[in-house]
Specification:
The protein is an alpha+beta fold. Helices cover 18% and strands 38% of the residues. The longest helix has 47 residues. The radius of gyration is 40 Å and the shape is elongated.
Length: 733
């Protein structure tokens, strides 16, 4: 890190929520003023173009001469002689995704109460519509042109389009193209376009070769034809992607008219010769973002190089590849330029822009940062060092521990679930069944909580009347808990995968830290069906073993077992689900074995899970006999019968999905046929002398009836698919 900071001379933010990069900033005498004062042109991806003239230290509102919304995202701006009317006047080129626009910028001075004021206006000179989405551009006197600048535009699919001011010259597709890279023009004697492809190769394409081999604007056929793509003059492998390319006379051996091709990689700067050879390279300690070359002496002499890094530093390299200076900015710069500003003019000002649109003019200063390294020697206090070491060890141990201590002030959820359905609904069908759960919400802290969100998640076909509730306040300090009534109903007679309901609460702690707490409840088994007289249906059966003598089924399932009637049979319980699938439990009289049998594999799920959980709860509440093993329950039979039934459910679900897809395809085809017949009828009706319908009206009615039939069939298949999806979820569980 540099010990020096760049001193800010002038700075402003372009706008809120705008993004910029280095290609969207340009510096120059854009209005061709006689005093030659530089202006800063900044564009943004929101399509706002701004021009500033820094007149003195610190930003003033009068420094912004233009702010215009150009109606499209700005990908790049550049200043040059882009018009044929004058060989001296500078124009502004603005690159959009689908067009290039060239403006003339004029300054108008007016008298105000505060004195003389100025503003700028844009005048459209010409524009080019682009057939392909643009990525970046570069300018130059291609082919040795004098007194004029041409523009090359690189598209997202690898097309190089050359514009000779108002005229489109030609275009060529780049070879080995995957994604676009940086673009730069090297003047005579090389006269070439330089770029870096996705294979991490730096390639040079001579303008004369491109122009001679082109036949105008390239077509899509030329893109697929390798022989018609551009051919590189030379290529050199870099081994890393490139951030930027520039040309300068930077190394000591380069003199006019030759140039160094400088490529800024992800970690390395490469200096290339004009024939493609690597002159030298330098590995950077920090990742770079952008660079800019500027003359260090008289025109035609050597140049210096500015490099901005991700840590906010600006590095200055001389012609001996020496680091001359390093200073830190307040932000990482994505664009750099060297300009003169102020009145009288201050030369050597560094103009930089951040990715969020902060434009800053600064110069290299020697003010040290506020945090200065203390070099004074003092006696070492080993007791303090040991105490600090122990404190840091404690912090590390707490941070790396597997379990963090839960906060003492937390939200508590407690639910009261009835053993059966609500009174008055016991003898109704599945449409009328409902159960009301009372949920108590309390807070152990001393203060109150605001805006506690309670959410309920239940498996299909269970549904809570109000799945999300917001409690405006929950009192703490041992106050009365908030009570919430949760009413659960059935949306269909389908089999549920389980009866577990998850209730969660989300709230913010005192410091604004988000916290959550969850709890689970079991809905009454009566919501899934009812007990009936024993049924002998053993298509699918499983046997569960336990190491305890079996309890009475009537005591174990007292919430669904009747005390008398045909369903009250000792050691046998048949449970009929709402979709008329049954499941029977048969208890062995001599051992702790339970046979569960049903007509389908999915009908075993609910009753089996309730049997295991109730057996575990029943025996866990009893004191263990000394020397007796803990209660265990297991399944020891083969899986082949169970898997066969499971595969049947999977096949039925897949078939239902295929049927629904076939219906959707047929419905789409019939709808297209119906629209086609409608169009033909409209043509007949609009005709001044309509031709006979020839049965089109009857065909329209048949198509309409077919649409209604397929729509009804699709709705029925959706209901069937939902039922089979529930059955598959139950069988999977």
């Amino acid at each position: 890190m540099s010990v020096f900071k760049a001193r800010e001379w002038w700075g402003t933010r372009t706008g809120e929520g705008e993004e910029t990069d280095g290609a969207q900033m340009a510096v120059g005498n854009i209005d061709n003023a006689s005093d030659g004062v530089h202006k800063v042109v900044v564009g943004s991806l929101k399509g706002v173009l701004r021009i500033y003239r820094p007149s003195a230290k610190d930003f003033r509102p009068s420094d912004m001469l233009l702010e215009a919304d150009v109606g499209a995202p700005i990908l790049g701006v550049d200043i040059g002689i882009f018009g044929s009317a004058s060989a001296k006047d500078l124009l502004l080129a603005v690159l959009h995704p689908r067009r290039l626009v060239v403006y003339s910028v004029t300054t108008t001075k007016v008298q105000s109460e505060m004195g003389e004021d100025s503003f700028m206006t844009l005048q459209l000179i010409y524009k080019h519509s682009l057939a392909r989405s643009a990525f970046n551009m570069c300018k130059g006197n291609f082919g040795g042109a004098r007194g004029k600048d041409y523009i090359a535009i690189q598209s997202l699919d690898g097309e190089l389009l050359f514009l000779e001011q108002e005229r489109v010259s030609f275009s060529k597709f780049l070879p080995n193209f995957l994604v676009p890279g940086p673009l730069c023009y090297v003047p005579q004697p090389l006269d070439a376009i330089i770029t870096v492809n996705s294979q991490m190769e730096c390639e040079a394409f001579k303008f004369s070769t491109l122009a001679a081999s082109s036949s105008g604007v390239a077509t899509n056929e030329d893109k697929d034809n390798t022989a018609k793509r551009a051919r590189a003059e030379w290529s050199v492998t870099l081994g890393e992607s490139a951030c930027a390319i520039t040309v300068a006379r930077h190394t000591k051996d380069v003199r006019a008219p030759n140039y160094d091709v400088i490529v800024l990689g992800e970690r390395t700067i490469f200096w290339l010769k004009d024939n493609g050879g690597v002159r030298t390279s330098k590995i950077l300690d920090q990742a770079p973002l952008c660079m800019r070359a500027y003359p260090a002496s008289k025109p035609g002499g050597s140049d210096n190089l500015l490099v901005a890094t991700t840590t906010g530093q600006v590095l200055v390299y001389g012609n001996e590849l020496q680091l001359l200076w390093a200073a830190s900015l307040q932000y990482p710069a994505v664009g750099l330029a060297v300009m003169s500003a102020g009145s009288p003019a201050v030369h050597g000002i560094i103009s930089s822009v951040s990715e969020d649109g902060y434009v800053c003019l600064s110069y290299m200063g020697t003010d040290p940062p506020s945090q200065v390294v203390n070099t004074a020697k003092a006696a070492l206090n080993y007791d303090n060092m040991d105490a600090e070491h122990r404190r840091l060890l404690t912090v590390i141990r707490e941070a790396t521990a597997d379990k963090r201590a839960e906060p003492t002030d937390c939200l508590i959820l407690r639910a009261q679930t009835p053993s059966g359905v609500d009174e008055g609904f016991e003898n109704q069908g599945w449409q009328g069944l409902c159960v009301t759960v009372k949920l108590f919400v309390s807070f152990t802290g001393s203060e109150s909580l605001k805006d506690v969100t309670v959410t309920v998640s239940a498996a299909t076909p269970f549904k809570c009347d109000q799945e999300t509730q917001v409690l405006s306040q929950v009192d703490g300090g041992g106050g009365t808990p908030r009570a919430i009534l949760l009413v659960f109903r059935l949306t269909s007679p389908d089999l549920p995968a389980h009866t577990t309901v998850t209730i969660g609460a989300l709230y913010s702690a005192k410091g604004g830290e988000p916290r959550s707490v969850t709890t689970s409840i079991q809905l009454p088994l009566r919501m899934c069906g009812k007990a009936v007289a024993p049924v002998k249906n053993a298509d699918f059966k499983i046997t569960i073993d336990s190491n305890r003598a079996p309890p009475s089924l009537s005591a174990l399932f007292e919430d669904v077992c009747p005390q008398d009637g045909p369903a009250a049979v000792p050691n046998v319980l048949t449970f009929m689900h709402h979709n008329n699938t049954d499941c029977t439990i048969i208890v062995s009289k001599n051992s702790g074995r339970y046979r569960i049998q049903a007509g389908s594999i999915e009908a075993l799920t609910v009753l089996t899970s309730h049997l295991v959980s109730r057996l575990t709860l029943h025996f866990s509440g009893k004191s263990p006999v000394p020397g007796e093993e803990p209660f265990q329950v297991g399944y020891s039979e083969g899986l082949e019968p169970v898997l066969n039934g499971y595969f049947i459910v999977i096949g039925s679900h897949f078939e239902a999905r295929q049927n629904l897809k076939a219906t959707h395809d047929a419905l789409e085809k019939s709808a297209g046929q119906f629209r086609l017949i409608e169009k033909r009828l409209l043509v007949r009706f609009k005709d001044r002398n309509p031709a006979p319908l020839k049965g089109l009206d009857g065909l329209l009615q048949v198509s309409y009836d077919k649409l209604l039939e397929l729509a009804a069939q699709g709705e029925s298949q959706q209901v069937t698919l939902a039922s089979l999806a529930s059955a598959l979820a139950a069988a999977t569980r």
